[in-house]
Description:
The chain is of the alpha/beta class. It has helices spanning 3-17, 56-65, 82-91, 103-106, 120-132, 147-159, 174-184, 222-226, 236-240, 251-268, 358-372, 395-408, 416-435, and strands at residues 28-29, 47-52, 71-77, 97-99, 113-116, 136-140, 164-167, 193-199, 276-279, 295-302, 305-312, 317-325, 328-333, 336-341, 385-388, 439-442, 447-449.
Amino acid sequence: MDEFSRRRFLQAGAIAAGGLLTPSGKAMMLEPRIPPMTKAVGPNDRLRFGIVGVGMEGSGVLSNALTLSGVECVGAADLYDGRHTLAKEITGNPNLETTRDYRRLLDRKDIDCILVAVPDFWHEQVLVDACQAGKDVYCEKPMSHTVAEGFEMVKAAHSNNRVVQVGAQRVSSALCAKAHEMYDGGAIGDVTMVELTLGRNDPTGAWEYPPPPDLSPANLAWDTWLKDTPKIPFNPDRFARWRCWRAYGTGVAGDLMVHLISAMMFTLGWNEPPRSALSLGGIYRWKDGRDMPDLQPVLFDYHGIPVYIRLGLSTETLERATYMGPKGILDTTEFGIHYTPQAGVDTAPCYYDSSYPAKMRAEYVSEWHEKHDPPPGKEPLTGQTIYAGDDWDDLRPHLWTFFDAVRTRKPNVEDAVFGNHAAIACHMANQSYFRKRQVFWDAGSQTITDAPQ
């Protein structure tokens, strides 16, 4: 089964399982959101990119990038030599330049842009170096490992006039575009609450990845990989499962929540950090030495709007984003949008009339129907609107958007500022968890504080 057919198969199953089919078994289909390049791309006008990090995520980024027209991978960097072989296999180029030192790619004048898919604690250094070298950058989510790093990355992007796009890909999906259009058009009125949920229930989903069997200090630059974190002996699990530890990653917040937060920000037109965050949770199932929680419910305050997020690695639950307002509910999932309008008015006399004496109740009911019943044949239509689309985690539209921005220099949605705001929410959730209290965002000092300023 080819990739397109596989996606359509998964899409159809998810639509049916998620209750997204109408009574007739049909849903309105959305086309993948891949905008056309502004001009035809000839052999001499191809974008040439290098990739830093060809691991689990990076190999997917590279493979998806190569499905797009007008781009070519000309170099790959990774601290593990096995991924040099992998990069050559993916590109089909046995002569592809591969290196442990990503700065060799930055020195090349023939490379236009860099795709970055390294662990969170390496994001800032690689992105800043790339911007200063004059390269545009696609950086995997979350943009930063700490709040301070995020602002250094924004500064580097702006001071060097570089295109930076963060890799929370559903921002470029047809589903999120349609959800934004519907919300912006007043489908639910002003949002009053948001609920975001995601649950996994398997070792792979909890990052218990099997390290490469041949991994050793001979083929991995272990001390370099550790960067400025505490020096520890060679540990294959730390390399493969780095998301489990605070020193290297950002846990379920930076891996999973950031997708939900980024999509919410785009759907609702928000581009800001939350005012506050209150996080609970703990390590309940995956007691494998990790120090990041495997269950993390969070309540955010976004300019007075409550946003509740539930993330867990012990129970499989549908990933969804639910936006609620006085005119209805916009329920979005991986493959569809389910819009349920609500009139927000009484459709029958108020049941408080049960406290009236009989004669008074009869008069009230008669008067209510006289005032509110529609003329026969003009009863308002009720029902639901269903849209189905390609997987909102398809990387191709997002990578296409990045490459198009590199060519045209036009603004992109998930730029460094947007990516930084989404990452700040993740950092606030984690800080609340570790501090065991509600935390607040202080825009003046650009820090997370224990009390509102």
